[in-house]
Automatic annotation (TrEMBL):
The protein, known as: 4Fe-4S ferredoxin-type domain-containing protein
Superkingdom of the source species: Eukaryota
Organism lineage string: Eukaryota, Metazoa, Ecdysozoa, Nematoda, Enoplea
Source species: Soboliphyme baturini
Residue intervals passing through the bilayer: none
Entry annotated with the keyword Oxidoreductase: yes
Pathway connected to this protein: Amino-acid biosynthesis
Residue span, Dihydroprymidine dehydrogenase domain: 136-244
Annotated ranges, domain FAD/NAD(P)-binding: 259-430
InterPro entries: DPD_II (IPR028261), FAD/NAD-bd_sf (IPR036188), FAD/NAD-binding_dom (IPR023753), Glut_synth_ssu1 (IPR006005), Glutamate_Synthase (IPR051394), Helical_ferredxn (IPR009051)
């Protein structure tokens, strides 16, 4: 049997690959011209000494057709090719390892393997700042420096899967061209990655922070491994673009003369306004609150979405020609009839503002609030709209949260920062399994046990999980408990 062929069990192949990698690193080889291999006598154990010489990286790149001056991060020093060429005779060398590629400008230890990245590299799981640190402020919970430090390795995990389930009906509802911009990030082509991202997403800085990421649940890698960190890559592309000043106001080249009124400045209203403005219509957005953003501004806590991020986008839209009118409630401050008369079209994007109530005895008691009432009031208090916040404040109170979804988690995290004495979450569903069940196959959304940012913060303080599962048959009476209930 050939020396390089091994009979291994499936679980042993990674060890064999690592052993081969260590052996290849034992001798560092640099070459200038692959054609010189033709002078090697068949059967020689080593390469001739006269071809083992250092070569500047830009020479290799120019031979491939790249201009080193236009590429970011290219090296001016010799490059070791031990990760590409093994110190065996040519008869033992895979021809694919002799073909120059775009990674030659990197040090060996930094040359990431895109072809086998999904096998070699684990998912980066450190997304948040430490709980004991972030509990002391209302800043975003995300650990952006840590996320960016592993971005290219995570992009290398994106497979050439043929049929990308991460986009389309099974994954991203926006149809983001995810494999394309993952590959562009890996290649350090951030500007083109931005162009691809903005083709399908008006506000990736929002979705990259608060989206539940169905794309990751539908990632083909998620069949057997942890999925690619698509959400982090998406957010990093747009933030890098803002930092590098790639994002500039782009007013339409001409105006159609049509005037459109958009009622509501939440995610839908903003997206509609942006698209209508791009085609040249004059757009006026009416918002009943004092600030633009709707759910983004008042529903989602600043720990998940900084209000500065919202303000940055609103300012950009204003520079592009969109007009915002705040503190105006249609039907009260201005009639619908007048809107129809003054505009060529009216778009209603008022959102889902009616919460689902619990018609149970005692619902009318004092101290019971809807989640949005609790979150919105506090967001307005933080923004200086309210001077007092005592009525719905959780400070020094025992809090019960009825529900276990994202909104409930936002209420939990907000209550902890306000100084709640205790928090208890009632989840109607049973405790989810740690792994997918047979009745929940990929690429369906995985119904598994999760620990979100708020749960992690509570666990840091109280060393336990705040949730009580399957409570529909357990919770009978709260009369003996001195608690404030958030619904």
């Amino acid at each position: 049997m050939h020396d390089l062929f091994y009979q291994v069990f499936p679980k042993e192949y990674k060890k064999i690959l690592e052993d081969e990698k260590k052996l290849a690193r034992s001798t560092s080889i640099s070459i200038t011209n692959v054609d010189q291999f033709s002078d090697i006598v068949e059967g020689e154990d080593r390469y001739p000494e006269d071809i083992l010489q250092d070569t500047p990286a830009d020479t290799m790149l120019q031979s491939e057709g790249f201009d080193s001056d236009e590429s970011e991060g290219f090296m001016d020093e010799p490059v070791a090719l031990d990760s590409l060429v093994s110190p065996f005779s040519l008869a033992d060398v895979d021809i694919e390892n002799l073909v120059p590629n775009k990674l030659l400008h990197r040090h060996t230890e930094n040359a990431l393997d895109k072809t086998r990245g999904f096998i070699k590299y684990p998912r980066h799981k450190v997304n948040y700042r430490k709980p004991d640190v972030r509990l002391n402020d209302f800043d975003e919970v995300y650990n952006f420096p840590e996320i960016r430090g592993s971005l290219k390795m995570q992009a290398a995990r994106c497979m050439d899967c043929g049929v990308p389930f991460c986009q389309g009906n099974t994954g991203c509802p926006l149809g983001n061209i995810i494999p394309r911009w993952n590959d562009l990030v890996f290649k350090n082509n951030w500007r083109e990655a931005l162009i691809q991202l903005l083709q399908t997403n008006n506000f990736p800085e929002f979705t990259g922070r608060v989206c539940p990421a169905p794309c990751e649940a539908a990632c083909c890698l998620a069949i057997s491994e942890d999925p690619v960190t698509i959400k982090n890559i998406e957010c990093s592309i747009i933030e890098y673009a803002f930092e590098k000043d790639y994002i500039k106001p782009e007013p339409p080249a001409f105006r159609t003369g049509k005037r459109i009124a958009v009622v509501g400045s939440g995610p839908a209203g903003l997206a509609a306004a942006a698209q209508l403005n791009k085609v040249g219509h004059t757009v006026l957005v009416y918002e009943r609150n004092n600030r633009v953003g709707g759910l983004l501004q008042y529903g989602i806590p600043s720990m998940k979405l900084s209000k500065k991020v919202i303000g940055r986008r609103v300012t950009l839209m204003e520079q592009e020609g969109v007009r915002f009118v705040t503190d105006v409630e249609v039907g009260k401050d201005i009639s619908a009839k007048l809107l129809m008369q003054e505009n060529d079209a009216v778009l209603l994007a008022i959102g889902s503002t009616r919460p689902r109530d619990l018609p149970i005895p005692g619902r009318e008691l004092k101290g019971i609030h809807f989640a949005m009432e609790f979150l919105e009031t506090f967001q307005k208090f933080q923004g200086g709209y309210y001077k007092e916040f005592d009525e719905v404040s959780a400070k020094d109170r025992a809090v019960v949260i009825v529900g276990g979804g994202d909104t409930a988690t936002d209420c939990l995290s907000t209550a902890l920062r306000q100084g709640a004495k205790s928090v208890l979450m009632f989840e109607i569903l049973p405790l989810p399994p740690q792994q997918r069940s047979e009745q929940n196959p990929w690429p369906e959304w995985p119904v598994v046990f999760r620990i979100d940012y708020g749960h992690d913060e509570f666990k840091t303080l109280y060393k336990k999980d705040p949730r009580v599962f399957a409570t529909s048959a357990k919770v009978r009476d709260l009369r003996k408990m001195n608690m404030t209930v958030r619904i």
